[in-house]
TrEMBL record:
InterPro entries linked: Class_I_gatase-like, DJ-1, DJ-1/PfpI, Prot/Nucl_acid_deglycase
DJ-1/PfpI domain mapped to chain residues: 4-50, 53-209
Positions in coiled-coil regions: none
The keyword Cell inner membrane is annotated on this UniProt entry: no
Protein name: DJ-1/PfpI domain-containing protein
Chief place of localization: cytoplasm
Any one GO BP annotation for this protein: glycolate biosynthetic process
Gene3D superfamilies attached to this UniProt entry: 3.40.50.880
Organism placement in taxonomy: Eukaryota, Metazoa, Ecdysozoa, Arthropoda, Chelicerata
Keywords from the UniProt entry: Cytoplasm
Keyword flag Cytoplasm: yes
Length: 228
């Protein structure tokens, strides 16, 4: 039976964190389902105000992580992508879920929560997210949250007292309920947390290692030319 992952996507999610996590897990042979908080409609990711213009040329078969990371970093510097890319539905600002969250019925080996402030607030407020996370915790299965998403863990009472990390902007909100760390990735039992877009590869690889072992991490890291 294949290893299965559920990635929960909300409006305002951090696109690099979502795409890198999904792509890395799939490279490891993990069956990934993206569940949309608002159903199967495309979810708009975190946005940036832009003025200077950049053209990113996209072809069939492009490496989605390379495209998404390039576009996202340019946006952060104030340079927008070509408007055509907003219609590229597998990534790049609008992400398309496989199913709606209400359709989730099976169990998963890991539930992963991408960050982004708007997305994380939505995850924290949604009762179905809390229900799934509590079931996952009670089954002693893996839960992973990156960037601001650990606020959803707190909201739903997940892993209280455990050692975690988050985006620095959320540290003060979490310190009273968790053993807070500033490490880039923190693993405490069946809970994995990480800090932000710049730690997304480490976050995803930590999930892979927890589920499939260090040899699988080595196997998929080399083709991605990740820094050792």
């Amino acid at each position: 039976m294949s290893t299965k992952a559920l990635v929960v996507l909300a409006e305002g999610a951090e696109e690099m964190e979502a795409v890198i996590t999904v792509d890395v897990l799939r490279r490891a042979g993990i069956s990934v389902t993206i569940a949309g908080l608002l159903g199967k409609e495309a979810s708009r990711c975190s946005d940036t105000q832009m003025s200077t213009k950049a053209l990113v040329v996209l072809a069939e078969g492009a490496e989605e992580m390379e495209a998404v990371i390039t576009v996202d970093v340019l946006r952060r510097a104030g340079r927008p992508d070509n408007p055509f890319l907003r219609q590229f539905t597998s990534a790049l600002h609008h992400l398309v879920p496989d199913i709606g969250l209400s359709e989730v019925t099976q169990e998963y080996d890991v539930i992963a929560l991408p960050g982004g402030l708007g997305g994380s607030n939505a995850l924290a407020a949604h009762p179905r997210v809390g229900q799934l996370l509590k079931q996952q915790q009670e089954s002693n299965k893996l839960i992973a949250a990156i960037c601001a998403a650990p606020i959803a863990l707190k909201s739903h009472g997940i892993g209280l007292g455990k050692r975690i990390t988050s985006h620095p902007s959320k540290a003060e909100e979490l310190k009273a309920d968790y053993d807070y760390s500033e490490d880039r990735v923190v693993i405490d039992g069946q809970l994995i947390t990480s800090r932000g877009p710049g730690t997304a590869f480490e976050f995803a690889l930590a999930i892979v290692e927890k589920l499939l072992g260090s040899n699988k991490v080595k196997e998929i890291s080399a083709p991605m030319v990740l820094k050792e």
